[in-house]
Amino acid sequence: MTEAHTPAAAHDSAIACDLFCAVIDNFGDIGVCWRLARQLAHEHGWQVRLFVDDLHAFKKLCPALDASRATQSVEGVLVEHWHEPEHAGETLQIADVVIEAFACELPPVYVAAMAERVRKPVWLNLEYLSAEDWVADFHLRPSPHPRYALAKHFFFPGLGPGTGGVLKERTLDAARADFERSPDARAAWWQRATGGPPPGPDATVISLFAYENPAVDDLLAQWRDGATPVVLLVPEGRISGALARFFGEPAFGAGTQATRGALRAHALAFTEQRGYDPLLWASDLNFVRGEDSFVRAQWAARPFVWHIYPQADDAHLPKLDAALEHYGRTLPEAPRAALERIWHAWNGRGTPDWAEFARHLPVYAARANAWAAELGQAGDLAGNLAGFAKSQLK
Ligand code: TRH
């Protein structure tokens, strides 16, 4: 059977959307898709089905999910376990809008059914985020299918105008403002996360979410030997082994705390996805990675250091520099150079210099605020995507 989820397909409130997500590794693929799915459902009233091939990775971000179920409704999104490459739901229903995330390949039976649909679906390939200039030129370019009368559009997230923008929920700024203006919310967060009160104002609070990183030992030593206290918050993950080695602990799992010199470190539990933002808001500086946490750090309007997802042949380095170009554009020479140095060192080029970087933290804090406003000019990705899809459905 080839039909839309609902007969009245093109009304805004009844737009049916199928979003396909193949988890390559880590949490970014599903992190972006889950956020987009919820936004399309909650903010645009779409009926969203999310096909995911790895429910265990998904469950880390969304503990309410039952990883053993083939189909389930979670927060208004129908989640389907995408078992086999050719599988696309029990009955083959084709949505009004079909999104393949990060060039994951749609099941051939599904594509064939898309071609048979009387009213052709809007077909989008959601690409990875890149700050490079060429992105705006390729955003929304159509690509005709070689065999079927179908065209796929490439949807490029980006940091500048003319791109698809990045995801931002309508409620995000208000939630951050509530957290920031409430000492009680902050104290409650610290109690939950670390079992103790927030540190005093003299401490620099740093969250550390990163891949394995050769520069981490150097940085930990500089924090330990520094003149001002550093409180480090480390969600359990790929960097935890380095922390355990540094502190001489068998492991650095949630609940572990350790102090050396001026450095105090807390290992935190990996939280559900919504719980990650308050960690960014509670910190003065955030080390982030991949794609989604990189974006969240920008909306948190705090200084951050990005561990970009490493690619073969160092293909990620021009992307790192393109982001630096945008973000550092208005910075004076000295803070700009110090920012570049620490971002490069954190991505395998050179050595970090904490004292040099920390000197400019107030400048970065001001820039982070201004940058969040600039970034907003590209618009929210979910809104941009919904607007484009609707224009095509008319
Ligand atoms: O996990 P990442 O490194 O993800 C990736 C993938 O490797 C992917 O293949 C790659 O292509 C992409 O990056 C660029 O980093 P990212 O994108 O920041 O995703 C992490 C997600 O985990 C993000 O949605 C925030 C979430 N998270 C939580 O939900 N709870 C937590 O405690 C933490 C620390 C993060």
TrEMBL record:
Keywords from the UniProt entry: Elongation factor, Glycosyltransferase, Protein biosynthesis, Transferase
One family name in Pfam for this protein: EarP
Reactions performed catalytically: dTDP-beta-L-rhamnose + L-arginyl-[protein] = N(omega)-(alpha-L-rhamnosyl)-L-arginyl-[protein] + dTDP + H(+)
Molecular function GO terms recorded: protein-arginine rhamnosyltransferase activity; translation elongation factor activity
InterPro entries recorded: EarP
Function: Protein-arginine rhamnosyltransferase that catalyzes the transfer of a single rhamnose to elongation factor P (EF-P) on 'Lys-32', a modification required for EF-P-dependent rescue of polyproline stalled ribosomes.
Homology family: Belongs to the glycosyltransferase 104 family.
The protein, known as: Protein-arginine rhamnosyltransferase
Source organism per UniProt: Paraburkholderia acidiphila
Name of the gene: earP
